[in-house]
Design a protein that fits this description.
The protein is α/β, with parallel strands linked by helices. It has four domains: about 160 residues, Molybdenum Cofactor Biosythetic Enzyme, Chain A; about 45 residues, Molybdopterin biosynthesis moea protein, domain 2, CATH 3.90.105; about 80 residues, Molybdopterin biosynthesis moea protein, domain 3 (Molybdopterin biosynthesis moeA protein, domain 3, Beta Complex); about 70 residues, Beta Barrel (Beta-clip). It contains eight helices and 29 strands. It has a seven-stranded mixed sheet, with helices on both faces. A six-stranded mixed sheet has the order 8-5-7-6-10-9, with no helix packed on it. The protein has a five-stranded mixed barrel with strand order 23-26-25-27-29. A hairpin with a 2-residue loop joins strand 21 and strand 22. Helix 1 crosses helix 7, helix 4 runs parallel beside helix 7 and helix 5 packs across helix 6. The two termini are about 40 Å apart. The relative contact order is 0.14. The protein binds adenosine monophosphate and magnesium ion (MG). The site of magnesium ion (MG) has 7 residues, from loops.
Length: about 400
């Protein structure tokens, strides 16, 4: 057999490195969107705070603004109530020694005051209030810029914009933001045995289920799915379908037809229209994963077994989607202890479907689903996480710590 001119039977890390390298060369173009439209997108450039946050010194509570130096250290003290200031008031009154101003949360602290005593701790009698010892000078005041100083790096390029990040932008007065274009994904299911849901099964046929799953996975990962097709195991039809999809999409994902069987045409199709970047990863499920480039488009040939398709999408395609958008920090993996000992029959890395539970001590335990077959959807549908059983390790004891692949 001739030597392949691309990496083959590689480890998971090497495969991810190759995906990262290729995807980094195809960073998506930048567009400017309103905050509402930018939800779920990835920031294209650093955002610095154009002004301090909060922009001015203000009250953290409803109460009375006064001078901390006037507070009694024992007994009580009476303060003269000279004015009031509410959040949004266009002007702010002054206070002096022995005086106070009624204030609401978010209102500017009157000049002369540096402390707010909460209203619950004060007794009011007409134009006077009485404060007892025990109040802290400087309390309940939010300094200008205590959250973000003017010029601070507020959000770094590569940050995905979730609710909190959008709130930061709005609070800083930024109404439009430069983000990466939403990645476009095309999904193609392949196999002569496949019949769409809603149609009766003939002899030897099964209902096609990968396309809708991969489409949903792509959407969950923030992509726009521009096509979902089903193609027969015919090299010319596959070639046409993949080429057409690659002309429109940033990522083309096929399922099926990548193993060593007679009808597994996709490695040959990819060689004809693009470049193979790797074929076969020491991974279970997902061994025959095929990855390459077709022009400016990334191509993933995922194995057809439903669990293998799902797992390799999560591991490789989601990673590529992030890299295309320039995501800087990857989601943090969590960890769990195996609830039972385990023998891995092969040296490859394995993603096991597992349910999680946290005990009273806060320790998270992973229980493997009984149905680990790569064709068995039940194990996917009834579990919480993918536990990574690393390459090379075969024996695991109960209590051993495993990594959970991040969401
Ligand atoms: P393949 O990778 O094409 O050899 O397919 C492996 C297994 O997955 C076979 O049992 C196929 O029938 C099944 N399979 C392939 N594609 C799909 C699909 N889109 N939906 C459900 N099962 C599939
Ligand atoms: Mg097939």
């Amino acid at each position: 057999m001739p030597q392949a001119d691309y990496p083959t039977r590689i480890g998971l890390e090497q495969a991810l490195e190759i995906v990262a390298k290729c995807a980094a060369q195809h960073r998506l173009p930048i567009e400017t969107l309103t905050l509402a439209n930018a939800h779920g997108r990835v920031l294209a450039g650093d955002v610095r705070a154009p002004h301090a946050l909060p922009p001015f010194r203000n009250s953290a509570m409803d109460g009375y603004a006064l001078r901390g130096a006037d507070l009694p250290t024992h007994g009580e003290r009476v303060f003269e109530l000279v004015d009031e200031v509410f959040a949004g008031a266009p002007t702010v009154p002054q206070t002096g020694t022995g005086q106070c101003v009624r204030i609401t949360t978010g209102a500017p602290i009157p000049p002369g005051a540096d402390t707010v005593v909460i209203k619950e701790n004060v007794s009011v009698d007409g134009g006077r209030i009485t404060v007892s010892a025990g109040e802290k000078p400087g309390a309940n005041v939010r300094a200008a810029g205590e959250d973000y100083a003017e010029g601070d790096l507020a959000l770094a390029a590569g940050t995905p914009l979730g609710p909190a990040q959008l709130a930061v932008l709005a609070a800083l007065g930024i109404a439009q933001v430069a983000v990466r274009r939403q990645p476009r994904v095309a999904v193609i299911a392949t196999g002569n045995e496949l019949v769409p849901a809603g149609y009766p099964l003939g002899f030897g046929q099964i209902h096609e289920s990968n396309a809708i799953m991969l489409e949903a996975q792509a959407r969950t990962a923030g992509a726009r799915v521009i096509a979902r097709n089903q193609v027969r195991d015919d090299p010319a039809a596959l070639r046409d379908a993949v080429l057409a999809a690659a002309a429109e999409a940033d990522i083309v994902v096929t399922s099926g037809g990548v193993s060593a069987g007679e009808a597994d045409h996709l490695p040959g199709v990819l060689r004809g229209i693009g470049e193979v970047r790797f074929y076969k990863v020491k991974l279970k499920p997902g061994m025959p994963t095929l990855f390459g480039e077709i022009g400016a488009c990334l191509y993933f040939g995922l194995p057809g077994n439903p669990v293998a398709s799902a797992v390799t999408f999560r591991v490789f395609v989601e990673f590529a989607l992030r890299t295309l958008q320039g995501v800087g920090v990857l989601p943090k993996p969590s960890r769990a202890r195996l609830a039972a000992p385990l023998h891995k029959k092969h040296p490859r890395a394995e993603f096991a479907r597992c349910s999680l539970h946290t005990d009273a001590e806060g320790v998270q335990w992973a229980t493997l689903h009984a149905k680990q077959g790569s064709g068995m959807l039940r194990g996917l549908a009834e579990t919480d996480a993918l536990a990574l059983l690393p390459e090379g390790v075969r024996e695991f004891a109960a209590g051993d710590v495993v990594m959970l692949w991040p969401e």
